[in-house]
Structures are given as C-alpha cells and as structure tokens.
Amino acid sequence: MKMKSLIAFSISCYLGILPSFSGNNTSRGTLTPKNQSAAEMIESITAISDSTSINNGLVFDSKVISIKGFDKRANENKETFFVTNNSTFDISRLQIKLRYTDINDNMLHERTEIINCEIPSNSTRQVEIKSFDSQRSFYYYLSPKPKQQRTPFKASFQLLRYDIIIAPKM
Questions:
Q1: Would you say the C-alpha torsion 120, 93, 14, 73 has a positive or negative sign?
Q2: Exposed, middle or buried, 117 (CB in 10 Å: 0-12/13-18/19+)?
Q3: pTM score, two decimals?
Q4: Which of 75, 124, 145, 163 could be joined to 93 by an S-S link, Cβ 3.0–4.6 Å?
Q5: Which tens digits make up the pLDDT trace of 44-66?
Q6: What is the dihedral angle through the alpha carbons of 102, 80, 1, 167, rounded to the nearest 10 degrees?
Q7: Contact between 119 and 126 (Cβ < 8 Å)
Q8: Are 32 and 60 in contact, with CB atoms under 8 Å apart?
C-alpha cells in the first residue's frame, strides 16, 4: 500500500491521571476530545475525504495505547519503552507528556514528546527517545543500580494525542 493512499487524522485526547510505567499498568481514565463531542468529531473527520468513510462506532477508548517496560540506565542518554496499540487501526504518531519524579514523588522534570512510530493494530513496538538526563546523573529506579553514585527517578506519562492511519478500501 502506498503512503499516498493513506489518510491520517489526529485524535486529540486527554487522560485524567498519570499512570506509572512500572508493572503491568496501562492508561486508565476517561478520554475526552478537546472542545468537541464524539459525534461532532466523527462528522468533522468524515468530511476530510468523500472517498473514505469512518465507522460511526469510532469511540475514544482509554485502553487504545499502553506503555510498559520503561528503562533508562545511568550511563545512557536515551530512554526506551514499549508502546502497544490496542486499537483496530494503525497508529502513526503519539504525543505524550512525561513526568519525572524522585523516589519521594517530588517533580524533577516534565516535558512533552511527539513520537513518530508506525504501530500496526494490536502490535507492540519498542520506542527510543532522547533522555531528559543529558548529564547522565539519574537512572530509572527499576533499571539496574549503577556502580557509581547516581540518583534514582520514577517516570509517568499522560497520553495527549494519537494519530490513526485510515486507508481507503482498494
């Protein structure tokens, strides 16, 4: 399938909580489109192309994207984690807000990242992003403890946006 035939649209959504990366946690909460009801958003998306019809059953689901397996070692300048697309659509991009705290939950840093990643429906991909820790002073508290003195941190995320790829039937 050629990229020219793909029509991508953005669904902006906000979660009411910041789930932890540790364990088997997934994003939980109610997804609310910004300033539009679900019916209004479906109508505006349908207007994108006369040749593409959108399933009227398209709804925002808090379990569409899950992030697990976060890792950042003290000697690395990258962070890795696994993103799972639990939807019936292919995903092309994510926008997440990352929050970093010390072990006592005091905020160290917060940032928003756009992650370009094509993740097919019901698939998982490992994602790598540049770390907030440019001086390599921190390590994720569930990663192996370094030999040198470094500060452990926790990480959490908030899903802000995901882009769904819709391909017309051929």
A1: positive
A2: middle
A3: 0.65
A4: 163
A5: 444 433 333 444 455 656 578 99
A6: -10
A7: no
A8: yes
Least confident interval from 27-31, 96-100, 128-132, 160-164: 27-31
Whether 86 and 64 have beta carbons less than 8 Å apart is answered as yes
- From the list 57, 53, 40, the residue with the least C-alpha distance to 7 is 53
Residues 137 and 148: their CA atoms lie apart, in Å, by 10
CA distance 15 to 158: 6
Strand boundaries in the chain, DSSP class E? 7-14, 32-33, 65-71, 78-85, 90-101, 107-119, 123-130, 138-140, 151-166
Q: Is the dihedral of CA 21, 121, 29, 45 positive or negative?
A: positive
Q: Which residues is 67 bridged to in the sheet?
A: 83
What pLDDT score was predicted for residue 25? 35
In contact, 122 and 99? CB cutoff 8 Å: no
The pair of structure tokens assigned to 129 is 């992003």
Which amino acid makes up residue 148? Q
Please choose, from the candidates 18, 32, 168, 27, the residue with its C-alpha nearest in 3D space to the C-alpha of residue 87: 27
- Number of residues assigned to the chain: 170
